[in-house]
Amino acid sequence: MNPVLPSLLAQSQPAPNAGGNFMFIGLLVFMFVFFIVMSRTTRKGEEKKRKTLLDSLSKNDRVLTHSGIIGTIVAIRDHEIVLKVDESTNTKMTFIKTAISQIITDTANLAPETASK
Predict the structure, then answer these.
(1) Which of 66, 89, 63, 86 is nearest to 76 (CA)?
(2) Mean pLDDT of 53-58
(3) Is residue 94 located within the same domain as residue 75?
């Protein structure tokens, strides 16, 4: 038998861990796809809640804006909301609808970081 033939056969055989590498790559791809699907589902739920909040706004609601201004809705237009922010001077400010963070029913309903200050 040719002494070169066994050495060539030994070199052509696959590495013993080749199947493990394929499974590891498959697991990584599965985890990536799972993460994308879960984040998309969460984002859609949050967008739906936000749209419901903005659609439910009505005159005389007390609201909190993203910038921390608390006011009472005086008028609602297409994409704008007019808030009365000071009763004594009758100060009004106009915001875009998406600037509204939440509807306030009482001061205990404020966001935790706002209520603790």
Answers:
(1) 63
(2) 88
(3) yes
Q: Quick check: helix, strand or coil at residue 18?
A: helix
Same domain, 111 and 63: yes
Range of the domain at 8: 4-54
72-115: per-residue pLDDT in tens?
Answer: 999 998 889 999 998 899 899 999 998 998 898 875 555 555 44
Give the residue from 94, 92, 103 showing the smallest Cα distance to 58: 103
Average pLDDT over residues 49-73: 90
The residue written with tokens 């030994």 in the block is 10
Tell me the pLDDT tens digit for each residue of 6-38: 555 555 555 556 566 778 888 999 999 999 988
Residues 83 and 35 placed together within one structural domain of the fold: no
Which residue reads 């306030």 in tokens? 104
Burial 17-38 (b: 16+ CB within 10 A, else e): eeeeeeeeeeeeeeeeeeeeee
The tokens of 117 are what? Answer: 């200050």
What count of residues does the chain have? Answer: 117
Pair (40, 67) in one structural domain: no
